[in-house]
Amino acid sequence: MRSLTDVSQHGAPSPPGELFPGDDPTAVAHRRHDWTSSPLGPIEGWPAALRAAIRTVIPSRIPMLVWWGPELVQIYNAPYAALMGDKHPGGVGQPGAECWAEVWDDLAPLAAAAWGGAATYSRDLPLLVRRHGFDEETSWTFSFSPIRDGEGAVGGLLVATGETTEVGIQGARLALLGQLGVMSWTEAATPDDVLRRAVALLAAAPGEVRLAVGRLRRDGDGPLATVATTGLADDATAPGDPRLLDRVVADGAVVVEERPEGWPGTTPPPGRAATVTVLHLPIVDRGQDTTIGVLTVGVNPHRTLDDGYRSFLDLVARHVSTAVTDARVLADEQRRGEALADLDRAKSRFLQNSSHELRTPLTLIMGAHDALLADAGLAEEQRRHVEAAERATLRLRRLVDGLLDVGRAEEGGLDPDLVPVDLGRLTADVASMFRSTVEAAGLALDVRVADLPGAVEVDPEMWTRIVSNLLSNAYKYTPAGTITVELAPAGDDLALVVTDTGIGIPADEQPHLFTRFHQVPGTSARTAEGAGIGLALVRDLAAAMGGAVAVDSTPGAGSRFRVTIPHRATDAPAADVAARVRYRGRPLAVEAGLWQGRSAPRPAGDGDGDGAGDGDGAGADDRILVVEDNADMRDHVVRLLRADGWPVEGVADAPTALARPRPLLVVSDVMLPGDDGIALVRALRADPGRADVPVLLLTARAGPEAAADGLAAGATDYLVKPFDPAELRARVRAHAEAHRRRMAAVADADGRADHLEVALRSSRRIGAAIGILMERLRITEDEAFARLRKASQDGNRKLRDVADEVVLTGVVPAG
Q1: Which residues does residue 559 pair with via DSSP β-bridges, in sequence order?
Q2: Left if phi > 0, otherwise alpha if psi is -120 to 50, otherwise beta: which for 693?
Q3: CA dihedral of residues 608, 611, 612, 614 (deg, nearest 10)
Q4: d(C-alpha 590, C-alpha 434), whole Å
Q5: In this predicted model, what pLDDT tens digit does every residue of 172-187 receive, in sequence order?
Q6: Which residues, in sequence order, are CB contacts of 625 under 8 Å at separation 6+?
Q7: Peptide bond preceding 89 in cis form (omega within 30 of 0)
Q8: Which regions of 252-373 does DSSP assign to beta strands (E)?
Q9: What's the rounded mean pLDDT across residues 217-239?
Q10: d(C-alpha 67, C-alpha 156), whole Å
Q11: 3-state SS string over 119-175?
């Protein structure tokens, strides 16, 4: 009999009556199989339907099979033989149930259906086939079609088939590698977490890896520690000979380990064989090219460990190595970042502590200066000494504030306190602090402020420092000529332009001009003093308010600094910021005066007490309680407030303050021994008898976050040390008087309860009417209220009566 391979090469159809072209039927029957004794009988007697089916099957390049007769005797072509492994050539003429005994339970129902006359189609059907000496996981796509004889009866089945095992395997492997590949940038975690994630992904693909164990070295030369496992019982020992694992780490090589009886602690799925082979794959740090761990994987016993399987497992190890390397790099960067953050926190703590230590003595010094200078009997010589000390103190305060602002700017902590101000007036007021100094030096100061309609939301202290720093810088580097200050709208922004006719700035220095602590070398100025932070602060303060600063300068012709900030116009009334302007602008104006050999004039009324009130007849609730652990500071605040006529008592800590009777107002430092000022505020707010007592907190901590802590705890106000004594007295007076009015209002509230209820009912009716008009007329709240008010005026009726009619009718009554 000619081989099936030879027969399949004849592509032309066979003439009727012949089995294979050019072959003698009797010779064919004896070449390989004795068809005379087969279930089909002698070839000469094969039915015409079978012969016709064979003429279709044999030449086809698609794997095809004929099952003939009740025993489904097999005849197939060469492409089909290639799929049978060692089942060929014994499968020729063999009944299908015998040839495919291991999967016949899956195939028999399909064959029975086709024998009944219904063709079947199966796609990617998984079958555990034994064709290479072991049970192999395979998948197939095939159809069973009935072959009918001349009388229409089914005499056999035609099977067209294709194996999809490799396609399925490659698809699953690519999907798994894709999941492992993205771990390097999606898993922001530790190396252990990444390895656990990788093992979990392997667990979800049992067809590729039956078990997996991930091990990492904790230290550079430390032992391997098991991080994650899958496919093992909870109490099972992870597979791996320690000597072999050490070899993987030392050589970075893949090691194969087998246990023919299967690995203990593993339970194969039903109908599947136990895992006998594992591969120990190195996990490599890609940056250092060193083995830092081992990934042990169990080979699927129903797959051939061929080159493709090995390459896939090698890619798995490479992806895991990349992900673990990325995680190690990230962990190292996080550790470095945490170390830098610790340094930053240490720096912040140092600045805060230094702030407290520096601002407290500065406040005492400034208070003493103010008290001495207010004394009309002070000798002239002593007055000069005090004025010199005051100017030095102001300069020290400015330097401390500047350094603290630099530190906060580095940490991104310059948060503006935006309030509505008359920006034109504020700019002119700051410039006026420098006018006498500038004119005394023979310079002209030209202030051109545009008429801005309404108030503008800015941080007045930040703006004051921007203007004063630019003016002092211009004055410092302008020996003759004019300094011009301009403020005008610029599109959606406001532009502050300070121009001078000074020495100018070299072109190569201009890019570094706003760098902290940078000073232009070799320049002639009125003074060599300065820390090189003024212009850097201008940049930081402008940026904090959403703006920017730029410079245009020509050596020998002067400089032009332009600061732009968003024009945040508002209809709110402008706030009184005179005290804040004086606090921020005065030190630099005074210091600038020293460069010319004289001090800037002392602002009128600065530091003077008004002496109002003598405390006579004060009730128990009129007493002000000062809580400060520093005795000098406590006495200083007490003297300031007594000078205004308040009865004042000073205590050193929060427990003593809480033991005193209810005061009218509390002035407390934040930093106290034991319970701090924040805790004192919370205790007062928790006491029903003193919950409404105003509390003014004093602190050396600068920045809005410090104020937020106190205000969140329930403090009424917040004042930063060193403070202006006049500002302290003004705030105490304002809060104390407001509290008195509140207490009087509460006392009078019971007598006006009925009227209040009427007013509330009227308010609710008016609100309901406004809501009805908004809904019916599709107008705004303000428009609805305007219609009600107009109807009230036109009809000379009360607004609540008009509202009642709207509620009843849904329309505004005619006037």
Answers
A1: 553
A2: beta
A3: 150
A4: 8
A5: 999 999 988 887 655 5
A6: 648, 649, 650, 651, 657, 660, 663, 665, 666, 667
A7: yes
A8: 255-258, 277-285, 290-299
A9: 85
A10: 5
A11: CEEEEEEEEEEECCCCEEEEEEEEEEEEEECCCCCEEEEEEEEEECHHHHHHHHHHH
**665 and 639 Cβ atoms separated by less than 8 Å:** no
pLDDT at residue 557 is higher than 50: yes
Q: Evaluate whether 625 touches 649 at the Cβ level (below 8 Å).
A: yes
The identity of residue 433, as a single letter, is: M
Nearest to 426 by CA among 400, 381, 458: 458
Asked if the model's pLDDT at residue 201 lies above 80, the reply is yes
Of the chain, the percentage scoring pLDDT greater than 70 comes to: 79
Residues 6+ apart with CB under 8 A from 576: none
Reading the block at residue 684, the tokens are 């007062």
pLDDT top residue among 145 and 553: 145
Tokens standing for 418? Answer: 């935006």
Per DSSP, the residues of 649-686 read EEESSHHHHHHSPPPSEEEEESS-SSS-HHHHHHHHHH
Amino acid (one-letter) located at 44: E
Could you tell me the two tokens for 197?
Answer: 């994630």
DSSP string of 713-778, one letter each residue: HT-SEEEESS--HHHHHHHHHHHHHHHHHHHHHHHHHGGGHHHHHHHHHHHHHHHHHHHHHHHHHT
Question: What is the Cα gyration radius of the chain?
Answer: 47
CB within 8 A of 519, min separation 6: which ones? 530, 532
Residue 13 DSSP symbol: P
- The answer to whether the CB of 225 falls within 8 A of the CB of 253 is no
What is the rounded CA–CA span in Å between residue 43 and residue 492? 100
Q: What is the DSSP string of 471-517?
A: HHHHHHT-SSSEEEEEEEEETTEEEEEEEE-S----TTTGGGTTSTT
pLDDT tens figures, 363-373: 777 777 777 87
Within 10 A of 529 (CB to CB), how many other CB atoms are there? Answer: 12
Residue with tokens 């707010």: 685
Q: What is the mean pLDDT of residues 696-723?
A: 78
Percent of the chain with pLDDT over 90: 26
Coil/strand/helix, residue 146: strand
End-to-end CA distance of the chain: 118
DSSP state of 412: T
Coil, helix or strand for 53? helix
How do strand 455-458 and strand 482-490 relate by DSSP bridges?
unpaired
**Identity of residue 814:** A
Question: Which pLDDT score, from 0 to 100, does residue 759 have?
Answer: 59
Please tell me what DSSP assigns to residue 234.
T
Quote the distance between the C-alpha of residue 573 and its chain's center. Answer: 38
Q: Find where tokens 């040390």 sit.
A: 721
Q: Report yes or no: 483 and 499 within 8 Å, Cβ to Cβ.
A: yes
Structure tokens that stand for 19 in this block: 């089995």
Cα 51 to Cα 18, 48, 304, 654, distances in angstroms: 8, 5, 38, 110
Cβ pair 548, 542 in contact under 8 A:
yes
Reply yes or no on whether the pLDDT at 616 is more than 50.
no
Please tell me the distance from the alpha carbon of residue 529 to that of residue 402, in angstroms, as a whole number: 14
Count of CB atoms within 10 A of residue 356's CB?
Answer: 17
* β-strands 624-627, 665-669 pairing: parallel
Q: Are 165 and 159 a contacting pair, CB within 8 Å? A: no
Q: How far, in Å, are 51, 91, 368, 610, 640 from residue 607 at the CA level?
A: 122, 114, 10, 10, 10
Confidence (pTM): 0.48
Nearest Cα residue to 568 out of 416, 417, 420, 465: 420
Structure tokens at 721: 């040390």
Q: Which amino acid is at 206?
A: P
Strands 482-490 and 493-500: antiparallel
- 216 strand-pairing partners: 225, 293
Say if residues 441 and 478 touch (Cβ distance below 8 Å): no
Is the pLDDT score of 97 beyond 90?
Answer: yes
Q: Which of 318, 194, 129 is nearest to 310 (CA)?
A: 318
